[in-house]
Amino acid sequence: MILSLSDIKKSYQTAEGRTPVLGGVSFVLARGESLALTGESGSGKSTVLHLAGGLDKPDSGTILVNGRDITKLDDVGRADFRRTDVGVIFQQFNLIPSLDVRANVSFHAKLARRFDPLWEGELVEALGIDQLLRRYPEQLSGGQQQRVAIGRTLAARPPLVLADEPTGNLDERTADTVLDIMLRLTKSAGIALLLVTHSRRLADRLDRRITLTSGKIAA
Ligand SMILES: Nc1ncnc2c1ncn2[C@@H]1O[C@H](COP(=O)(O)OP(=O)(O)OP(=O)(O)O)[C@@H](O)[C@H]1O
């Protein structure tokens, strides 16, 4: 099992007091498996991604990634975990403006000591960014930046990829193509993929799907 959440509870402190967001969420994700996480706006999807990515801690419950309980890690341990065990594709692409596309794509792979030029070549070609390698992020369209962000995450071949509407900036046809490429590449690399989407059409292409309703997984 690559990812396992057991009875995760999370609330946020707000001006109105403590607001419960997740009320006991449990699910597992196997190596090479893809899981769609759907649910209405505000149901807690991004919160699940942040917790699984070690960006925040739950109030209670256990999150195992690759056998390691990430809720027990200190700051150094979490930084190390984020560098090597998980890749995130969020809606802000967070490309590095001073680096060209090629250097952006290699960046995390080099940091994680998993740089592999052959795999990177396969990725940039599959994602259709091979003609853009010498451009800088500001010279790319939103959809092109999104594909570079996907390439950068997959290049590091982390065991787990967390993606929040990773094709949200693309037209329907390109979104389908890019998702198919992501699914093919994650499968072939044995990467477990947890993908948040509002689109039933995209969710249906993944291996499994769970829906959050008011902070719980709907039966
Ligand atoms: N840092 C925070 N402080 C306080 N409340 C928060 C914080 N982050 C999220 N929330 C609240 O938690 C709830 C769940 O938010 P979350 O972003 O996880 O939902 P979501 O399902 O991803 O929504 P969307 O589809 O709109 O992105 C919302 O009610 C939101 O207002």
UniProtKB/TrEMBL annotation:
From the record, give the transmembrane residue ranges.
Answer: none
List the record's Gene Ontology CC terms alphabetically: plasma membrane
Sorted UniProt keywords? ATP-binding, Nucleotide-binding, Transport
Regions annotated as coiled coil: none
Q: Which GO terms describe its molecular function?
A: ATP binding; ATP hydrolysis activity; transmembrane transporter activity
The cross-references to PROSITE patterns, in alphabetical order and at most eight, read: ABC_TRANSPORTER_1 (PS00211), ABC_TRANSPORTER_2 (PS50893)
Give every ABC transporter domain span: 3-219
**Xref: InterPro entries:** AAA+_ATPase, ABC_transporter-like_ATP-bd, ABC_transporter-like_CS, ABC_transpr_LolD-like, MacB-like_ATP-bd, P-loop_NTPase
* Pfam families according to UniProt: ABC_tran
Into which family does the record put it?
Belongs to the ABC transporter superfamily.
UniProt-recorded name of the protein = Putative ABC transport system ATP-binding protein
Which species is listed as the source?
A: Mycoplana dimorpha
Q: Source taxonomy lineage?
A: Bacteria, Pseudomonadati, Pseudomonadota, Alphaproteobacteria, Hyphomicrobiales
